[in-house]
Amino acid sequence: MAENRIIVIGDYIEPRDSSLFDLSSTLRLKAKAIDQRKLWESKDCSAEFMGDIWSLFLEPEKEEKIKTVLHSICVELIENSAKYGYQDYDYVITIDLALNTNQLLVYVKNNCNPSHLTELQNCAHAVLDTDDIRKLFKKKLHEAKAAKKQGHSKSQLGFIRIVMQNVKLAWHIEVEPNNATITTLAVISLLNHGA
Q1: pLDDT tens, residue by residue, 54-107
Q2: Residue 7: what are its φ and ψ, rounded to 5°?
Q3: What is the pLDDT of residue 195?
Q4: Inter-residue contact 78 to 108 (CB < 8 Å)
Q5: pLDDT (mean) for 108-121
Q6: Closest CA to 45 of 71, 19, 24, 63
Q7: How far is the C-alpha of 46 from the C-alpha of 77, rounded, in Å?
Q8: β 103-112/23-30 pair status
């Protein structure tokens, strides 16, 4: 029997006691409770809701920019959770947001089949290791167009879009023999998002 293991990619910050933050909230979407079409439709509404609520707690000059960035992050990460989630496992997509003075931490947690991990790791390392995120975006966009012509849908642009907004990404993955629990962390610096 294979042992459980932990994989950490990037500068992952462990979630702390919520009492240490100025503000925190959690949103849970039970993936099997609704059909896949509705989940795809609801991701944008959920992300917009999170952006609207959280923008109220920020300085006025940062409000609109952070609302836009937060919405974009949530849409991309909820979409990945729905797309790559473990379809045969009754999992919950959890979105935790935590605010402190200088940053907003977004944790999105879901479950997937361990067979998806190599692709995730390759994509994560490509995004974190690149010296030119815009060049990587153009390359992946070209690859996505070529794949579409062959009838495949595999863009790998979501993480790149997030990083292009001056957001840092990291991953914490707990691997079991038949399941992987992935927590993706997006760190939005409140110092870099002025008006």
Answers
A1: 767 777 777 777 778 888 888 888 888 877 777 666 678 888 888 877 888 999
A2: -120, 130
A3: 42
A4: yes
A5: 90
A6: 71
A7: 11
A8: unpaired
Q: Which tops the pLDDT comparison, 127 or 195?
A: 127
127 and 159 Cβ atoms separated by less than 8 Å:
yes
- Contact between residue 110 and residue 194 where contact means Cβ atoms under 8 Å apart: no
Q: Give dist(CA 75, CA 61) in Å, integer.
A: 23
Share of the chain above pLDDT 90, in %: 31
Query: Is 186 exposed, middle or buried (CB count within 10 Å of its CB: 0-12, 13-18, 19+)?
Result: buried
β 5-9/180-189 pair status: unpaired
Q: What is the overall mean pLDDT for the chain?
A: 81
C-alpha 85/C-alpha 87 separation (Å) is: 6
CB atoms near residue 54 (< 10 Å): 22
Tell me the one-letter amino acid at 90: D
Q: Mean per-residue pLDDT for 2-16?
A: 87
